[in-house]
Amino acid sequence: MSALEGPSVRLRPLVPGDYPTLFAWYNDPEVVAPYDRFAVDTLDSFVHSVETAPGNPASLAPRFVVERRDAPGPIGFVGHYLAHPVLEYVDVWYVLGDRGARGRGYGREAVGLLVDHLYATTSVERIGATCDVENVPSSRLVEGLGFRREGTLRGALFHHGRWHDVLVYGITRSEWKGRARPA
Ligand SMILES: CC(C)(COP(=O)(O)OP(=O)(O)OC[C@H]1O[C@@H](n2cnc3c(N)ncnc32)[C@H](O)[C@@H]1OP(=O)(O)O)[C@@H](O)C(=O)NCCC(=O)NCCS
After folding, report:
1. 33 alpha carbon to ligand 1 midpoint, in Å?
2. How far is the CA of 136 from the centre of ligand 1 (A)?
3. What is the pLDDT along the chain (183 residues), one digit of tens a residue?
4. Which atom of ligand 1 is nearest to the CA of 109?
5. How far is the CA of 68 from the centre of ligand 1 (A)?
6. What spacing in Å lies between the alpha carbon of 98 and ligand 1's midpoint?
């Protein structure tokens, strides 16, 4: 698969040379899980999950590396997964592992490219995202893309020693097609 190009960032498939950087981020709770549960992984199982993800729609593995177009090299990664055993929607997730790259619009642009890609290559109707109610950057990221806040799952996520409420966001194919895009 070729890269997905935006104005400032691109998404490209992972290659083995990315694994050490991505694995280090993946295993750093301060990077990936300030508002999420965290489980230590092994490099072998990380690589296995990445390499088997293309045949597994429910895989939670990273699917694309995010990199700046003007400075190639990973700044983060994004993924998508079939989120429910019966309902047919896909959730997206996103991490900028390079914390110096945060707050510059790269995360939102990367998720926009991912949603474009999913609507272009699958028949999925609804794309969703969930985040801890306290994860302001994550909720603002998807709200800025036009995702609607559909509800709150109370006490749905345990991390940092207590249960947290989770916001549910979603956007439909027609909403995505009709949304106002940045000039
Ligand atoms: C969530 C994440 C990917 C956002 O990436 P980013 O590139 O920094 O986000 P963007 O620059 O595209 O900004 C998206 C929105 O978040 C806001 N934002 C970014 N950082 C913020 C911060 N520290 N505090 C408050 N708002 C913030 C931006 O202002 C923007 O909203 P606005 O346009 O309405 O003002 C990044 O913070 C991250 O990797 N967090 C850790 C992993 C994580 O929580 N992932 C999501 C799991 S659900």
Report:
1. 13
2. 7
3. 789 999 999 999 999 999 999 999 988 989 988 899 888 889 999 999 999 999 999 999 999 999 999 999 999 999 999 999 999 999 999 999 999 999 999 999 999 999 999 999 999 999 999 999 999 999 999 999 999 999 999 999 999 999 999 999 999 999 999 998 766
4. 12
5. 16
6. 12
In a domain? residue 51: yes
What predicted TM-score, i.e. pTM, was given to this entire model?
0.96
Q: For residue 172, what are the domain limits?
A: 4-178
For the record, the structure tokens of 171 come out as: 């956007």
CATH number of the domain enclosing 71: 3.40.630.30
DSSP 146: T
* Tokens 């028949």, residue located: 123
What lies within 8 Å, CB to CB, of 44 at 6+ separation is: none
Residues having CB within 6 Å of any atom of ligand 1? 32, 34-36, 93-96, 102-108, 131, 135-138, 140-141, 144
Domain membership flag for residue 115:
yes
Nearest-atom index, ligand 1, CA of 132: 48
Q: Which amino acid is at 121?
A: T
CB contact set of 162 (below 8 Å; sequence gap of 6+): none
Cα R_g (the chain), whole angstroms: 16
Residue 136 is assigned to a structural domain of this protein = yes
Looking at ligand 1, which residue's alpha carbon is closest to its atom 24?
A: 137
Asked whether residue 183 is assigned to any structural domain, the reply reads no
